[in-house]
Amino acid sequence: MSDKVIVGISGGVDSSVAALLLKEQGYQIEALFMKNWDEKSEDGSCMWEADVEDAMRVCDTLKIPINTVDLSREYWDGVFTDFLEEYKAGRTPNPDILCNQEVKFKAFLEHSLALGADKIATGHYAQVVHKQDLHLLYKGLDDNKDQSYFLCRLQQAQLARTLFPLGEIAKPRVRELATKAGLITHDKKDSTGICFIGERPFREFLSQYIPVQKGEIRTTEKALVGEHDGVYFYTLGQRQGLGIGGVKGASDEPWYVVAKDTGQNTLIVAQGHDHPLLFSKQLVATGLHWISGQAPNVPFSCQAKTRYRQADQSCTVTALDNKAATVHFDTPQRAVTPGQYVVFYDAKGCCLGSAVIDSTET
Question: 3-state SS string over the chain?
Answer without folding.
Answer: CCCEEEEECCCCHHHHHHHHHHHHCCCEEEEEEEECCCCECCCCCECCHHHHHHHHHHHHHHCCCEEEEECHHHHHHHHHHHHHHHHHCCCCCCHHHHHHHHHHHHHHHHHHHHCCCCEEECCCCEEEEEECCEEEEEECCCCCCCCHHHHCCCCHHHHHCEECCCCCCCHHHHHHHHHHCCCCCCCCCCCCCECCCECCCHHHHHCCCCCCCCEEEEECCCCEEEEECCHHHCCCCCCCCCCCCCCCCCCCCCEEEEEEECCCCEEEEEECCCCHHHEEEEEEEEEEEECCCCCCCCCEEEEEECCCCCCCEEEEEEEEECCEEEEEEEEEEECCCCCCEEEEECCCCEEEEEEEEEEEEC
